[in-house]
């Protein structure tokens, strides 16, 4: 069944959960892919995907249609992931070790040491978090540095530096 | 070009963000440097590969049920908040003012009206918490059971701490430390009840 997206959004804004579920079905894959690449953790990506849709439900009234719904949802998702990451840092419960800049440059587990078997997705997942986020947002999702700076709270120059670092680490990993 | 400067220039070149004269300078360098040409080719290839990664990945399980449960819970809370709002708005203004006035941090003690000592403070606290307690008892049926349970558990802990302080103060009425302990627990109780009122009225 194909429904008009504008109608679905309007109905969801009126509190129609069936319409919101249809929006979820249409966008879940896109949101999950973004969460998965930003977090490099399946369980966390599932959690953040749910967080993003709950937040979208809460904020639907603020969506005025100036941008595409998918763009609005995307930015909201990025915010949720980054907010979640900051909260985790505060709680000091994070177990992912990829914040270590040298993580990709030293011998790792079976995946990291398998040379040519290392594909781009896995290499991206193994990047340090800051570099991974900027690479995903810039090179995969097509955000500009100014937008990344606004979303993440870092300077434009830092965004560029993280991107160039990510590319260097990826080239090294993929050339092993 | 060498080191970080080289890396930055080549990346900016690939991204098309160099000024015209820098771009011309890099292109002149590339004409003579095979290593940099190879690096540019790799960077272009990497960016193209990243841009062509699948934009959609289906989660390994259906996440809708979890989303639906959470938004349904929030809808219930919103209804409860609306129900509480009318009943508690007036009470909040009066009771919070009464309760917190006496139980502000010690730094505000000099501003208490003259002649109202520790006994008056305790009496005021008792009256305030009693009024808040009555509001809580009257409205508890409208709260979620888990919320009531949590509130009751926390109130019981605070009440136990206050009872211990009262008993100790009965043995040593002049102890400043014991009064401090009692006041700290009392502030916690008023804050907790105030939180309930604030959430309900928000």
Description:
The complex is a heterodimer of chains A (176) and B (202). In chain A, helix 2 packs across helix 3 (42-59), helix 2 crosses helix 6 (129-140) and helix 3 (42-59) crosses helix 4. The longest helix of chain A has 23 residues, at 17-39. Chain A is built from 8 helices and no strands. Helix content of chain A is 68%, strand content 0%. Chain A is mostly helical. In chain A, 39% of the residues are buried. Chain A folds into 2 domains: 5-91, RNA polymerase sigma factor, region 2, helix turn helix motif (Rna Polymerase Sigma Factor, Chain: A), CATH 1.10.1740.10; 115-175, Winged helix-like DNA-binding domain superfamily/Winged helix DNA-binding domain (Arc Repressor Mutant, subunit A, Orthogonal Bundle). Residues 92-117 of chain A have low confidence and may be disordered. Chain B has 202 residues and is mainly α. Chain B has 2 domains: 3-51; 69-201, Up-down Bundle (Four Helix Bundle (Hemerythrin (Met), subunit A)), CATH 1.20.120. Chain B contains 7 helices and no strands. In chain B, helix 1 crosses helix 3 (34-51), helix 4 (64-102) runs antiparallel to helix 5 and helix 6 packs antiparallel against helix 7. Chains A and B meet through helix 2, helix 3, helix 5, helix 6 and helix 8 of A and helix 1, helix 3 and helix 4 of B.
User: So what's the overall shape of chain A?
Assistant: elongated
Question: The CATH topology of the largest domain in chain B, please?
Answer: Four Helix Bundle (Hemerythrin (Met), subunit A)
CATH architecture type of the largest domain in chain A: Orthogonal Bundle
Gross morphology of chain B is elongated
Please identify which CATH superfamily of the largest domain in chain A we are dealing with.
Answer: RNA polymerase sigma factor, region 2, helix turn helix motif
List SSEs of chain B in N-to-C order.
HHHHHHH
Number of domains of chain A: 2
Largest interface: A-B, 37 and 30 residues
The assigned structural class of chain A equals mainly alpha
Quote the beta fraction of chain A. under 5%
> Helix/strand/pairing class of chain B, anyone?
mainly alpha
CA-CA gap between termini of chain A = 48 Å
Largest sheet of chain B: none
Poorly predicted runs of chain B are 107-115
Order of helices and strands of chain A: HHHHHHHH
Low-confidence stretches of chain A: 92-117
Oligomer: heterodimer
